[in-house]
Amino acid sequence: VYSIGQKKQLFNPLVLAITLLYSFYTSIILFFIPMGILQYSALDYQTLAITVETTVVLTTTVEVILHTKFWTKFNVAAVVFSLVAFFLARLFTGSPKDYFFL
Q: Which residues cross the membrane (predicted)?
């Protein structure tokens, strides 16, 4: 079990560089696609921020789902609870007037 850590297979400069490049690429995509879509609309920056925030949460949740190898009832409960908590928090906080959040 510990031989992977002793051989530094999961944490070495190459893995770190690939992870940083992937994170940078993902952040560029998750920002500029909504920015390009909302650029010529009458919406404000708060609407853009909420849109980007929602896509980041959904994308992160999908990545967690795809990387999970063994599912238990606790994994399912954590994923469902995190999504429900996010949308409930977003529902009860102030949203922009022109952003229709269901």
A: 12-33, 45-67, 74-92
**Rounded to an integer, what distance in angstroms lies between the CA atom of residue 62 and that of residue 84?**
14
Torsion of CA 16, 24, 56, 36, to 10 degrees: -170
Three-state SS letters, 2-53: CHHHHCCCCCCHHHHHHHHHHHHHHHHHHHHHHHHHHCCCCCCHHHHHHHHH
Question: What pLDDT is stored for residue 5 in this prediction?
Answer: 78
Distance (Å, rounded) from C-alpha 80 to C-alpha 78? 6
Residue 89 gets the label, from left (phi > 0), alpha (psi -120 to 50) or beta, of alpha
pLDDT digits (tens, 9 = 90+) for 41-96: 877 788 888 889 999 999 999 999 999 999 999 999 999 999 999 999 888 776 55
